Amino acid sequence: MEIHEAAAGPGDGVLDFSHLNLNTLSVDSIREERKRDTKQLYLNHNRLASLPSSICFFSNLELLDISNNGLTAICEDIVGLRKLKTLIAKNNRLDEFSLPKEFGSMQLEVLNFSGNRFEEIPLQFVKLQRLQSLSLGGNRLKSIPAEIENLTSLELLYLGGNLITAIPPELANLPYLSYLVLCDNRIQSVPPQLTRLHSLRSLSLHNNLLTYLPREILSLVHLQELSLRGNPLVVRFVKEMTYDPPSLLELAGRTIKSRNIPYYPCDLPAHLLHYLDLASKCPNPKCAGVYFDSCVRHIKFVDFCGKYRLPLMHYLCSPECTSPCSSNPQSDAESEDESSVPADRLQRVLLG
Amino acid sequence: MEHTEVAKPETLDDLIKMLHEIFKSDNINVEEVQTLMESYESKPQEWKKFAIFDQYRYTRNLVDEGNGKFNLIILCWGEGHGSSIHDHTDSHCFMKMLQGQLKETQFEWPKSQGDMVQKSQRILLENKVAYINDSIGLHRVENASHTEGAVSLHLYSPPFQTCQTFDQRTVSRHSH
Which sites bind Fe cation (chain B) (predicted)? Predict the structure, then answer.
């Protein structure tokens, strides 16, 4: 089918060739001037098997939508679109091998490849320094690469509906991340480092394999939406006694730290100085103790906004230690006052 | 005896006018409202101005205040957005798909102890209308798609003010 320029509105920089049953795209009939003026090109909902190389003639293009075609690859020529900011390619047959080599050098800010066949997040994606929004929902991703931390401008990351089993702690290095969607995956735990995501406003974790959350999640001050339903979250108090008696080194270290015994670099070999720096404070405020390697994993229930009971994991220095504000560690009706989240901080916790 | 054919609303404005007519009476015939809403074929250019999406969660956009007898609201659901389990505080609730699909999970009213019991689950397709009220039970509505947004048209009679939400695991309830 021939393209007619009249198919799109004149002079507004938008060319809409969507829903036209196109098998191929021939842009020869479009004037050079028109091609140069086009800022948004809609080619979605057609039957394109490939993107034509003539796409590069739309030299000022800022938005390209090639969703809902039969694309298995994206041509090299797309890299020539130096002004392209938004690329939407949903519902095609693309995977991590479909992208041109130099794709990572583009100036893209918004990328949506949801509904394709990606099994890995390709290296070309994590090179996109200006990327603010990345959507890969409904693919076949098994993991998130540590290199995700290179996307320093990222604000939105949508990875719902994949096969992801774990969250890399490097995700916490994204300073502007405000919307993180990991629902409908196979995630078993959340790394405590995510507490560093100070900008996080919305976190979607529903329909995964979580049994508890790290206590640190309470520090996400800007978090307003948190979805956790469809996880096998622990509902009753569980005390896991994975406690190995502390070593002599640990006992000595604990004594030095808790009694504030002074020491100086000239007193100790470097490796012991380093060891002493690794002391972690026991969260029990009545316990001034510290621990190094030997600790008790303990699940505590925390009320969110007085509404929902979340099982959080934290570490105590010994089985005799109790959780903050708890006189009876066997109780399952505890509310942890010092960390209970005020209602205005967490407005929507979708647990039930 | 012949039925008088109910005229089909060609536009959204037609639908609103016809709803005003029906709701002049105090007795609501659920089937009549449901059939009327279903017969309007969604035309995006007619409701696009109400369809304002939010990145973080679903939005509610008032379309018509129905003379205080009902309100008509358009909800926009981004990928993965969903509601909590909620009731309808003695109201009728009709929900019509204008674009995309929504998954509705119905729950029994909770007994005093134990988990909430799921009653049924269905996908609502474009232009279809679902109906619920408190005697039927509670429901959760969500856009289960990871690639498409969804837009739905809701009619509440009496008009929507507050509802209760429910925690699926512990059967505790709270007011919104």
Answer: 86, 88, 139
